[in-house]
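Field log, afternoon session.

UNIT: design team B
ACTIVITY: writing a sequence onto a fixed backbone
BACKBONE:
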C-alpha cells in the first residue's frame, strides 16, 4: 500500500506583536507532525505562548540543503510539516524558498497559512505608490554584487522596498543617496511593536536624523522609484550631448519628414520648434 505524501504548510508568524498570529496558524502548528523552525530557541517562546507542544527541528540558511532532503523524506512518508521563520512569511527572503522548490520537485503539496509580512506591511503604511513595487530584502554584503544591485535600482521606476539592520543603516543610506540621488523615502521601524514608527522624509533627511540619533530596532525602507520627470530630464541631457543636426538626422533616417523630425527634436530637448529652426540656421 502506497503512503500518501504529507503537506508542507508555510505558516506566517508575528513580525512584532504576538497578536499578529492567526487562529488558523495556531491550529495548524498544533496539528502537524513536525515544525521546521529557523531558530528553535526563538520559536519555542512563540510555541509556549500559544500552548503548542509539537516537536520542532531546525531549518536555516546553513543546513537548508541537508535538512531539506530529510524533511522531504518525512513528507513523502506521510508526515505533515509546518515551516516557520523567526518573523513573517516563510519563503520570503529566507531559506524556505529552497524547501518549497524541493517539495514541488518531489510532487509534495505546499500550501500557505498567510499572515504578517514586514515588506507588505511597510508598503501599506509608507504613503508611497503601491500598485507597482520591487522587493530587494537586504542588500548583498558582497561589494561587487551590492554595486550591481544599486546600479539596477537607479533605473527602477517602481517603489523599492529594502530591509536594513540598525548597525548598517547609516552606511546604507549614504550608499543609496550616492547611487539614487536624494529620493523620497519612508522609514518604517519596529513594525507592529510598541515603538512602531513610520516617518516620511528624504534620504538626506533620514541621514541627518540618524547621524545624530543611534538607530534602534529593525527597519524597512520604502523608496520612491525613478520619476517620469527624472527620466525626461536625463533624456534631455543625453540629447543635449549631441549636435542638433545629428539629432534631426536620426529621425529623418527613420522615415520622418523635416517638419515631423523638428517636432520630435523639440519635444526631446524641451524647446520650441522655432528654437530648433533657429539653431539649424
Amino acid at each position: 500500500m502506497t503512503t500518501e505524501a504529507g503537506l508542507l504548510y508555510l505558516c506566517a508568524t508575528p513580525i512584532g506583536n504576538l497578536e499578529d498570529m492567526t487562529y488558523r496558524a495556531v491550529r495548524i502548528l498544533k496539528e502537524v507532525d513536525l515544525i521546521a523552525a529557523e531558530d528553535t530557541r526563538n520559536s519555542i517562546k512563540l510555541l509556549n505562548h500559544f500552548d503548542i507542544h509539537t516537536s520542532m527541528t531546525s531549518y536555516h540558511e546553513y543546513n537548508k540543503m541537508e535538512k531539506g532532503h530529510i524533511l522531504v523524506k518525512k513528507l513523502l512518508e506521510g508526515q505533515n510539516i509546518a515551516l516557520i521563520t523567526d518573523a513573517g512569511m516563510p519563503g520570503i527572503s529566507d531559506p524556505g524558498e529552497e524547501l518549497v522548490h524541493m517539495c514541488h520537485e518531489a510532487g509534495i503539496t505546499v500550501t500557505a497559512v498567510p499572515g504578517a509580512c514586514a515588506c507588505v506591511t511597510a508598503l501599506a503604511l509608507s504613503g508611497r505608490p503601491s500598485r507597482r513595487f520591487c522587493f530587494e530584502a537586504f542588500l548583498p554584503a558582497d561589494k561587487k554584487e551590492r554595486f550591481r544591485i544599486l546600479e539596477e535600482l537607479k533605473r527602477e521606476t517602481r517603489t523599492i522596498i529594502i530591509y536594513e539592520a540598525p548597525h548598517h543603516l547609516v552606511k546604507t543610506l549614504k550608499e543609496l543617496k550616492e547611487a539614487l540621488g536624494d529620493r523620497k523615502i519612508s522609514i518604517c521601524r519596529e513594525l507592529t511593536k510598541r515603538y512602531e514608527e513610520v516617518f516620511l522624509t528624504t534620504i538626506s533627511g533620514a541621514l541627518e536624523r540618524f547621524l545624530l540619533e543611534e538607530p534602534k530596532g529593525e527597519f524597512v525602507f520604502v523608496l520612491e522609484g525613478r520619476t517620469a520627470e527624472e527620466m525626461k530630464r536625463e533624456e534631455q541631457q543625453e540629447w543635449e550631448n549631441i549636435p542638433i543636426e545629428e539629432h534631426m538626422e536620426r529621425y529623418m533616417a527613420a522615415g520622418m519628414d523635416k517638419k515631423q523630425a523638428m517636432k520630435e527634436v523639440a519635444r526631446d530637448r524641451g524647446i520650441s520648434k522655432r528654437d530648433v529652426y533657429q539653431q539649424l540656421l
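LOG NOTE: The chain has three domains: 8-116, 119-226, 229-280.
NEXT ACTIVITY: expression trials, pending approval
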